[in-house]
Amino acid sequence: GLLWAYKYKKEARYIESAKKLGDYYVAHYFDKDQPGAPGSFWWVGTEAMYALYQATGEKKYLESATKIAETIPPVLMISQHTHSYLLSLRGIVQLCEETKNATLLKKVLQQYTVFKDQVMWPGGGIVEHLGDSTSQNLNYWYDEGCSVDDWLGLNLDLWRTSLDPSYMDMAERVALNHLLFDQDEDGGFCGDRSVDFVREGSPWPFCCAMHGTRTLSELTQYIAMTDGADMFINLFYPSTTKLIIQHTPVEVDLQTNYPVDGHIRLAIKPTAATDFAVKVRVPAWSHVKSAFVNRSEE
Known about the structure:
Largest sheet: 3 strands, mixed
Number of strands: 12
Structural class: alpha+beta
Strand content: 15-25%
Radius of gyration: 21 Å
Number of helices: 10
Strand order of the largest sheet: 5-6-10
Oligomer: single chain
C-alpha cells in the first residue's frame, strides 16, 4: 500500500516508510528466533519486496524477494489460506519477469494447475480456505474477494509473461462472473459470500475493498495493450486507450455491449502512417462469424 501511494503521490514519506519495512524483512525474515515459522501470510513479502526493488533499484530487495519465493511450498490442500498464497504466486511471476528464473516459474505453473483443476468454482471463484469440510471452520464454504482478485490477477500476470490467450480467457471468466458476484450494491467488495447464497457476505474495507479496486484498475490496463511492436485487444469493454506503437501514438476506441451481444467495433487511429499487427483475442468459447476492416469483410 505504501508503494502504491508513492507511485501516485510521489511523496518521500511513503517510500521511506516502505524501505524501513523492507529493511526489517531483509534483516529478520529468516531469523531462527521468530515467534512463528514464516508461512502463508509471510510469503506475500515476495510481491512487496520485488515492488520495493522496482521503486528503488536496490538489489537487496530483489535478492530478498527471490529468497522468500524459493521457500514457498506447494499448495497444502488440507489447510491453506488462498488469498495470501495466490498473492505470493503473483509475486513470483513478477519476479520471474526480471530474473527469468525458469525453476520458480515452473513452480507457479504447477500450483496454477492445482487451483484451476481442483479448487476453482465454475464461475472462477476461489474459496477462502482449503481443507476438509469436517475439520475447517465456516470459511471453508465461503469465498474471500481477495482470493478471487488474486486469481484473476495471476492470470493477467501469466498472460503478460507468455501471451497465451488461455490466461486471458480465464481472467475474463472471473471478471464477468465471480468478480461482479463479489461486488456489493454499495460498490464495495465482499468476503464470506457463498455460491449457494446461504451467506450473503459483506464488504471488507480492511482487505477486499483494496484488492477489488486494484483488480478493476488492472483490468482496464489490459483492454488494449502493446509490446511496442504490435497491438493486443484482450478484453471487450467500452473504452478509449492511448498507446505508443513503433514510436507512434495510436488511439484505440472500442465500442461494444459485450457480452450481451457479440458486436465489437474498433476504431484505430494512429497519428502517422505505420504498420503493425492488431491481435484480437477470440474467446475460447466463441465462434466468430465475420470480421470487417473498413467495412470490407475479411
